[in-house]
Amino acid sequence: MSRDMSHAAHTEQYRTANLWTRWTRRTRRHGQAPPTDDTGAPPPSAGAGAGAGESALWRMRTTVQDEPGSLAVLCTALAERRVDILSLQTHPLAVGTVDEFLLRAPGELTVSALTGTVTAAGGRDVWCERADAHDLVDAPTRVLGLAARTAVDAAELPLALRQLLGRCTIRSLPAPAGGSGSRGLPVEGMPADTVMRLRTPEGGAITVERPYLPFTPTEFARARALVELDARLGPRVPRDGEALALPEGTGLTVRRAGPADLAAAKAMHERCSERTLGLRYHGPVGDADRYLNHLLSPRYGRTLAVATPAGRIVGLGHLLWDGDETEVALLVEDAWQRRGVGAELLRRLVAMAAGTGCASVYAVTQASNTGMVTAMRGLGLPLDYQIEEGTLVITARLDPATTTATAQEAHGEPVGRE
């Protein structure tokens, strides 16, 4: 394959390099069904739960007839169960209206009782899940905050969509190969039940899936507005750097990297041995450069670069949004290995992941890559190992409070979500 192969082909080659490992992971993944507290089980009695005499926050969505008095009947039924309506949003449909409530209910009221009350009052397709204090922010303020984050950093777009739409799987699809325009991409339009498709400015698409709750036209309009904002602002990656403190005090800096660093990243590849590149990319060493367009794009995640005082990149760390999972990957050129560069990169990537609400991160490597294994163990987090035919998948379960505190100590401010 020639070195001028299209970005879409590069992306596809990178994605298929570890296809079997990702398929294996997804066979073990929990589905998109709502958690047990959405399906009729009583609310938990500890942690997020509430007991007798206490109150609990709920997010509830239901479809009602678009006719005078229907909403009043529903509100009266909730009031009779001592349920307080804190906020209400309406999502008009062609037939009927979807009403989304934020409720404060007595702690002893189960989700099945709450759902039954709404159904008896004329609601249908009722959906409930536990809410928290973050849901008390009104919708316009929340959307403006997400827009501000997206304006600063293009890599925030998938995260903003996830916070806007709730638990969902977001995948970015590259532009078709060979200049075939939009052929082969899903057609943008109003959401089809539980799937939303949005066109990106570079000719690709973003697909959002939320099997447990259909999308509404209002949600589609909000998501599309965020994507259009991203398109108008163009590529943008924060470039502020900070000192990377190593025991030997080499004066290295770490910063965000993006498409503008492509030439410097290729130069680092040329200084790496075949073994180093092989351990990182798990494929033909000669194809390593072709993965960089995908890896450096903020559309697919975040990249950190470690640079010398002269500006030469000696290490790259990637945090990649893989559907509803998050992958971490490291590459440190040979002359800088075993000096703490990889461990520092990994620690910052994990702090970023925790700051965006990720429950876990995983690394795909080889059993012989002792450097990556040691770096993952050095996180001090619970690890899960899966190995087959020499390929090792290490999953770290994150504690957002602990990792964010670690990031504050290292950087002086939180990393990731505001």
Descriptive tags:
single chain, 418 residues, alpha+beta, five-stranded antiparallel sheet, four-stranded antiparallel sheet, 25% strand, elongated
Describe the structure.
This protein has 13 helices and 15 strands. It is of the alpha+beta class and 418 residues long. A 5-stranded antiparallel beta sheet has the order 8-9-10-11-12, sandwiched between helices. A 4-stranded antiparallel beta sheet has the order 2-3-1-4, with helices on both faces. The longest helix has 17 residues, at 217-233. The chain is elongated, with a radius of gyration of 24 Å.
Order of helices and strands: HHEHEEHEHHEEEHEEHHHEEEHEHEEH
Which spans have pLDDT < 50 for at least 5 consecutive residues?
Answer: 1-49, 180-186, 402-418
Q: Whole-number radius of gyration?
A: 24 Å
Biggest β-sheet: strands ordered side by side in the sheet = 8-9-10-11-12
Mean pLDDT: 78
Strand content: 15-25%
Question: In total, how many beta strands?
Answer: 15
Biggest sheet character: 5 strands, antiparallel
Helix content: 25-40%
Describe the secondary-structure layout.
Blueprint: H1 7-16, H2 19-28, E1 55-64, H3 70-80, E2 84-92, E3 97-106, H4 111-120, E4 124-130, H5 139-152, H6 157-165, E5 169-173, E6 195-199, E7 205-209, H7 217-233, E8 241-243, E9 253-257, H8 262-271, H9 274-281, H10 292-296, E10 301-307, E11 313-322, E12 325-332, H11 341-355, E13 360-366, H12 370-377, E14 383-388, E15 391-397, H13 400-411
Antiparallel strand pairs: 1-3, 1-4, 2-3, 5-7, 6-7, 8-9, 9-10, 10-11, 11-12, 13-15, 14-15
